[in-house]
Amino acid sequence: MSDSQSDTDYFQEIVAEIETEARNRAATGEYPRALLRSLEEEFRRWIPDASLENGVEDTIRGIEAASYVDASVPLESRSSVGSFVKWVVRRLTYFYHRHMAQQVTALGIHVTRPLRLLDAMLKNIDRRVSAIEDQLDVGAAARSELIAGIANTCVPEEFKEILLEHLTDAPGRVVFGDLFQPELLRFLSRQSVDIYGVSPTGDTIEAVDVRQEQLLDHLSHLESDVLGGFVLCGVTDRGSLNEQLRVLRLLLLRCKPGAPVAVIVAHPESLSSRFGPVATDLLHGRPLHPETWCYLLSREHASDLTVTEASDSTCSLITAKLQ
Amino acid sequence: MRWKAVHQFVPMLAHGDAIGSHVMWIREHLRSRGCHSEIFVGDENSATTKESFNLDEVDRHIHSPSDTLFLYHVAQASPCADFLATRQESLGLIFHNFTPPELLIRWDPDTAFEILNAQDQLAELIGKSQFAICDSQFNSEVLAGFGNVKSFVVPLPLRETAVVKAKADEPPIILFVGRVAPNKAIHDLIASMAVLHQVFPDAKLRIVGSSTVDPYDAALEGLIAALGLEDVVTLTGWVTEGELELEYQSASIFCTLSDHEGFGVPILEAMARGIPVVAYENTAVGETVGEAGLLLTSKAPTVVATALERVLSDTELFDRLAGSGHRRSRVFSGALVADGLDKALSWDESL
Questions:
Q1: What is the arithmetic mean of pLDDT over A149-171?
Q2: I need a surface site. Which of A126, A178, A229, B147 has the fewest CB within 10 A?
């Protein structure tokens, strides 16, 4: 064995050992996990392209590799005559094969060039989106814990009859979301209001239709002008301003003209005493004032706007009819 | 050689960079063979005006067009390409490859789109070229995508140099030589250094080369500061030849994790000095290193750091890499490369 062959084998063996050892060290924590996490984090911050998945790039490389055609046909054969014949054929047709191979390779390169630029631009967009997502996600876990621990607004008994009267004769099915008070839905359903609930937590009520999903997701899957009305609560207490406005916009899009609508909202002033200072500080949103809901609905040309305040002043019911 | 005059065209002539050195070496070789040879540039560089002429001076140097060959160094977009497309003299290409624009577009979109222009220029020019000389087989395969041309693989020549003596008691220095450009993946070297620093706290990384784009420089500085490696990583900026030699003299390992190399002159310069090479295998890197270095298939920081640690702590491996690299570098001696160049220049498509 020559020096170079012996070195090649030796170095390849060493590289295999190194790669195994690196994996083991990372797995056993010999390379501190905190350091590796910090590397990943700092890479995302400073060299974002390098930390992205390279699925598209790998595909492009695959196309490039596949489009490279070697015009030199192999000459190996079981007999020396066969090998000679192949050599003669290759020699005679080389100009032709080379010409064809180069056209195929050229095509591959010209196809992948715009793809590569597109890939780079997509990565750029990904990087920006990731940065925005990072900003939005900060504190998400803490907020989820807080939301889970906060008691829902209790809808006063006095609202039941008002809602029943308001929703009777709705021009279609009424959606109740976020559902957090099953009794109210059951009551309205038993009073022959065509109503169903949307609950992210999966509450079930006997003989009442309850969909287990986020209200925003549910509304985004519906066609326009299919709902006969809505009762909106829950998200009005703790959703971010953006979430509340998105939900309202979708509800308005999905409701038929003339649909009765209702919003139950906790009093912003009572927020601190009910949620406590930590939740008040950390939650994205806070309840909007009843005046704000009235303003938002009137902007959509809703009529018959009425605000009813609970006798204990903890919440308000806003009712209206869409035009 | 059948040519009485062989003139070279290069986008810009710079002292010290791989293409600039190559151009000068070819001119001296041709002149030593009795050939009339000058260098013409698309864009003037004040440091090399005595060595080169502008394109409007070409005709003054042409005595017999049929005995004159133009050699165009293809590496970036240049007025040279448009000029040569209109000329009747015979044309040969020296293809140094292009940095893939997708590696630059985030950091330096202008250069990325300039490279696309250069690719278009090459596609236009290749049809009128008699032959091409490529630094590597990898470059030859890339060139084949631009059109049908007879191509010769002739690597860049390496200057003879003395072997560096291993330094036992000094802190280990990991060396990289090359432009501080995104495609050179300096960021991966820095990340690897953060891991190596856990086991070799006194190890240093020296990045020797000029910067290219401000946003990438800023990102590297930010990364270094965020990882607390200010005392570990040094970016020297551009250095003179004398200073570069000192960098090689003090290096323990040469390491490159570059994403794209059409050849790899610094790798060979390190090997010629007996400095062990650890490299990420891709494009023409494997072809340049040959059997004489540690070629990694991953450049995950843990893998690179483990490799560097292994070379620093395994004397047998260190010595074998040093010896093997030095032997490998002889393949790129000026005399052997000159033979390859002469063969390419003597090729006659009519035969």
A1: 85
A2: A126
DSSP string across A172-205: S-EEEES---HHHHHHHHHTT--EEEE-TT---B
Facing A120 at nearest CB: one of B105, B290, B293: B105
Of A18, A47, A106, the CB nearest to B303: A18
Of B332, B192, B297, B182, which Cα lies nearest the Cα of B253? B192
Residues B190 and B206 in one domain: yes
Q: Which of A23, A39, A72, A124 would you mutate first to test chain B, the one with the most B CBs within 10 A? A: A39
Residue B167: inside a domain: no
Pair B280, B308: CB distance under 8 Å = no
Residue range of the domain that includes B290: 173-332
Q: Examine residue B145 and state whether it is found in any structural domain, yes or no.
A: yes
Give me the interface pTM, i.e. the ipTM. Answer: 0.88
Model confidence over B171-203: pLDDT tens digits? 999 999 999 999 999 999 999 999 999 999 999
Asked if residue B83 and residue B40 are part of one domain, the reply reads yes
B194, A35: Cβ pair inside 8 Å?
yes
Chain A residue at shortest CA distance from B218: A46
By C-alpha distance, the chain A residue nearest B103 is A120
Q: Measure CB to CB from residue B148 to each of A57, A99, A116 and give the nearest one.
A: A99
Q: How far apart are CA A200 and CA A205, in angstroms?
A: 14
Q: What is the dihedral of CA B110, B112, B117, B122, to 10 degrees?
A: 150
How many structural domains comprise chain B? 2
- The C-alpha of A107 sits at a distance from chain B's nearest C-alpha, in angstroms, of 8
| Residue B279 in this model has a pLDDT that exceeds 80 | yes
CATH number of B249's domain: 3.40.50.2000
B105, B191, B292: residue with CB nearest A39: B191
- Copy the structure tokens of residue A54: 């390279």
**Per the CB < 8 Å rule, is B223 touching A35?**
no
What domains can be seen in chain A, in order of their start residue?
A: 32-137 (no CATH), 148-321 (3.40.50.150)
* Whether residue B288 sits in one domain with residue B139: no
